[in-house]
Putative aconitase subunit 1 (Thermopolyspora flexuosa), 425 residues
Amino acid sequence: MRLADDEKAMLDGAEGPAVAAAMDLLVRYGEALGAERLCNVRNVAGTMTQPTPAKAKLVREYGWHKAFAVINLDSDGDFEIPHMRVPTCQLQHGFGEDALGVTPYPAELVRIQQDAEAFYGPRGVNILATCTPYQVGNLPVRGEHCAWMESSAVVYANSVLGARTNCEGTASTGAASLTGKIPCWGNHLDENRLGTHLIEAAVPVDSFRDWGMFGYFVGEVVQENRPVVTGTLGHPDLTDLKHFGAATASSGGVELYHIPGITPEAPTLEAAFGGAVPSEKIVYGERERRHVYETLNNQGESTDVDFVLLGCPHASLDQIAKVAHLLEGRRLNPGTELWIMAPRALRTMADRSGYTEIIERAGGRVLTDSCPAMSRVAPEGTRVFATDSAKQAHYLPAILGIEAWFGTLEECVDAAVTGVWRGEL
Ligand code: F3S
């Protein structure tokens, strides 16, 4: 890999041992990938504060500097971690103090995370604590090179914002934070941003549930390729696209899609493919739609719902407002809990707008920082949950060993109020 002068200097230790270790990691990583060079990044979204048993042990024995070296730089060196070189944010992590007594998340992990925030915050890690950093002020511009983790955020950044990032890992984002560099390969390069598969919807896709189901279909058929989707599509909003992308990255590994006339790198169908449009297309019709619905509901047996989970990826303010509207003047079934996951900044706005109070008066909760999949917890005794998120319906049954129902927001709120799943296609 060719290194620029500033990169060589970092590698040689001109900016201290931590930066040298970070550059060493990027060189090893880039060479393994076949990257020819590094590119400059000014926007890193990674995970530094998430508490894990391995991290807790390292911190107990050696402190936070060493924990960062081992976990975020893949180095066993003993050195001080300096201030991050470029703007960096923490994605979702574990639940915080406000969830104690609400979720069964261990208090010990909450304490470790608070320590982590106190260490990383002053070193330039913005504690956004959400899988949707683009909803709370971290909004890269079109063409901007970034180093982001979190599959649902990566596919949003590439596709909806036209920014450029691969799906990075804990170590590569740690190294990018200290150097402002990341290997220039994959989604950073023009030639890897054109569509590969044409998918045509032949049934209407214009509700939140429709976009989730369509995304789940698209991910399943294209896996890690780059779909271009057309057909009977309504005009999606931010929540539809966040749901669609998260679903494509759950059933498959999509990091970039195009919707001609909607997403920025696809003003036309031809532009999405860089010229010739493939003659073959994959059709999403009634049969495929029903298949997706049945797949997402094949983990459900009992219709007695203990838990309703909304906000995956983390909810927008509009989604929180909708839940409040649906719960106004109602009470949850005594045996059913409802949690809506949201970025903490949006929870503050929901508080000011009165939405949180309405939801809590009904017996529901607006929780921040994390989610059941990330923190691996649900309300005590949960056997059956319902969700409007294709991603959670895909992952949570395996993570927590519980049954799942997938449906609309209205069906989920109905299940929270009645305790019974009555969803249908
Ligand atoms: Fe976010 Fe958790 Fe879903 S991190 S994307 S709410 S699985």
